[in-house]
Amino acid sequence: MRILGVDPGSAVCGYGVVEGPGARFVTAGTIRCASLAPGPGRLRRIHENLLAIIDEFSPQALSLERHFVAANVQSAFRLGEARAMAMLAAAERGLAMFEYPPNEVKLCVAGHGHADKAQVKYMVRKTLNLDPSIDLADDAADALALALCHLGRGRVPNLVEAIERIRPPAPRRSRPRMAPQ
Fold it and tell me: Could you please report the per-residue DSSP string of 82-94?
């Protein structure tokens, strides 16, 4: 299965494509919109670029960071608009769409839900066995982490089940019997 991860932003939108079940790197990059005036031009660039990426790499699903409430309301609005462009691109190309909260993505990729950007980027590189010479922007690393999170979600229940099968059950503690008085 091929997954497109998108880290939406109105100035820079990260994307990354991975292929599973072995989590193989396909591509990653950023869509830069900062040179355009805020508004429809930026949104059009995000939408058109995501459609081109979908057409070129043929993912089966899109993985997107779940919206969160930001301290700055205007920033939250801009982020919501960029997310809407990713959702629209997925809908136009018939892709299944999945959303994950940031802490779940960090937990899945880095092992704990409060990992910083450097830890996430390091684990994305390690998981995908990326050559150090490949330049990986933070937004692209976050997008790859979203795609990896989607691939990993299917494996976690199977892993837990496998561990439970091979681990002997814990001994039951019996309560000491008290002598009648």
Answer: HHHHHHHHHHHTT
Q: What's the Cα-to-Cα distance from 62 to each of 36, 82, 97, rounded to whole Å?
A: 25, 14, 5
Is 142 a residue of the active site?
Answer: no
7 is catalytic: yes
Q: 139 catalytic, yes or no? A: yes
Report the C-alpha gap between 23 and 21 in whole angstroms: 6
Which of 139, 142, 161, 164 is labelled catalytic? Answer: 139
Q: What is the three-state SS of 109-178?
A: HHCCCCCCHHHHHHHHHHHHCCCCCCCCCHHHHHHHHHHHHHHHHCHHHHHHHHHHHHCCCCCCCCCCCC
pLDDT in tens, the chain (181 residues): 999 999 998 889 999 999 988 889 999 999 998 888 778 999 999 999 999 999 999 999 999 988 766 677 877 888 889 999 999 999 999 999 999 999 999 999 988 888 999 999 999 999 999 988 888 999 999 999 999 999 986 444 444 444 445 555 555 665 656 666 6
Indicate the pTM of the whole model. Answer: 0.82
